[in-house]
Design brief:
Rossmann fold, two-stranded antiparallel sheet, 9 helices
């Protein structure tokens, strides 16, 4: 460890999640990359990393709540690996990535969307466009964290909308950070479908 970094840690001890993240690297994250089909929404989603793993939990926490650039980079590296392989194997033509948007209040408080920051690393060298403004939150919703499955569905029902009609010929990769009950993802899928999307691939960084 460099002396300057050691002094900073001495004066400002790092969080437990930050310490765990520091012990991980690109190879450690890629070793955990295990795309899994999850049928909590329709169409089924693909979860890339196991949230139960301490390193994955630390990365999600640091990205979501502390705007840590290393977390964005490591998560982005895993997503890049998956998308690069996916685009090489699948010829779907017009493809774009749509990050699930935050509520206006949460975006204002946090100042950033962690999924968009991860995408900034993931899309380097990948021939897929990102449309961060295609999907919007129509209303603010309470945090899903403490809600049950049915309450989560009710909480986010009708919470999203597309800004314009969508082409049924295009492929839309819908990206969120964590998939639990699938309620948020399903609400976003429904919004894209109602706007005309016929080919949607939901992906979560962790599940």
């Amino acid at each position: 460890m460099r002396i300057a970094e050691w002094l900073v840690d001495l004066l400002f001890p790092p969080r437990a999640s930050e310490q765990r993240m520091r012990r991980g690297d690109t190879n450690a994250v890629l070793a955990l990359l295990s795309p899994t089909v999850i049928d909590t929404c329709t169409p089924p989603a693909i979860g890339l990393l196991p949230f139960r793993d301490p390193l994955v939990r630390a990365l999600i926490h640091e990205a979501k709540y502390h705007e840590h650039e290393r977390a964005f980079a490591l998560l982005g590296g895993a997503l890049h690996e998956y998308l690069a392989e996916w685009t090489a194997d699948v010829g779907f033509g017009d493809v774009c990535v749509v990050p699930v948007p935050l509520s206006a209040a949460r975006q204002k408080t946090r100042g950033y969307n962690q999924v968009e920051r991860v995408l900034a690393y993931a899309m380097r060298g990948v021939s897929i466009t990102v449309h961060s403004d295609l999907l919007v939150r129509l209303r603010d919703t309470p945090s899903q964290t403490t809600l049950s499955g049915s309450a989560r569905q009710e909480n986010v029902h009708g919470a999203f909308g597309a800004v314009h009609p969508l082409s049924p010929e295009s492929t839309y990769i819908l990206l969120d950070d964590v998939l639990t009950t699938g309620a948020t993802m399903q609400a976003a899928i429904d919004a894209l479908t109602q706007a005309g999307a016929a080919r949607i691939i939901p992906i979560a960084l962790a599940h």
